[in-house]
Amino acid sequence: MKLSVVVPVFNEEAVIAAANKRIVSLLEDLTWREMINDYEIIYVDDGSKDNSLSLLRTFSAESQKVKVISFSRNFGHQPAVAAGILHSSGDAVVTLDADLQDPPELIEEMLQKNKMGNDIVYAVRKERSSDTFFKKWTARVFYKIMHIMGLNIVYDHADYRLISRKVVNEFKKIGEVNLFLRGIFPFMGFKHTFVYYDRQKRFAGETGYPLRKMLSFAWEGITSFSSAPLRLASITGFIISLGSVGLIVWALYVRLSGKAIPGWASIVIPLFFIGGLNILFLGLMGEYIGKIYSEVKKRPLFIIQERHNINDDSE
Prior knowledge:
Layout: E1 2-9, H1 16-32, E2 38-45, H2 52-62, E3 66-71, H3 77-86, E4 92-95, H4 107-115, E5 120-127, H5 133-148, E6 161-164, H6 165-171, H7 181-188, E7 192-198, H8 211-225, H9 228-257, H10 265-297, E8 304-308
Parallel strand pairs: 1-2, 1-4, 2-3, 5-7
Antiparallel strand pairs: 3-8, 4-6, 5-6
Helix pairs in contact: 9-10
């Protein structure tokens, strides 16, 4: 079988040479041991501002098996992963980040699971000892919220996975602009299994996912794959409406009993509370309308500026 390895890259000049050497060495060993008979590595440069693209051009010049796609600007991690998958030609495709926190050596076990008939093999972290307490805590909150919102995602799984050509062909039919791959692949079904690993410390460089991006990614996932926030808004509105009816009954009782005490608190506090909820829920609906707007425009998910060793036929 031929194996494609997709590696999204954004400002990874400090680690990309070591990552390439390690991945190539692994794939050559798998080829020598006849676990695969051919391979390709597809690097997708997501508008890097450092020297990453120059290094990738060098790798592709040294080997036809190393392919490079360069975006015209930064489109984001998920479009970069999708671009690599769409341009792959392997019987199986592995998506892997360049920072070496997810060990490439796990690919061998993933291939074994694939040969047992699994179309998707999810790599799941056993523990997060390399992460800070804050990142561990926010990650757990992220997954719990996702499950509460009804999203079928794999706990402690990022974007390190193997998918078969069958899955790739079905993935090509998905035309969503607001991509959330961690939700899309579980949604697709297919026979799947898991492999477990210990997440390593970052080899070099800095993370491309600060808190701002993590929160944005979480919100993107929730609003792209779940209507639960809208349902929650409806339920909350219904409860408040019932409460308002109760307040009206109470106000009439007090007025008719002659016990009414003039005051502004009973007017101002509910007014502010309900007004704030109205603004909140209007903003929430605006998020979903904005996503509809993005989907209707049908703008391309990414724009490619240059390719190296990539055939257009593989799209």
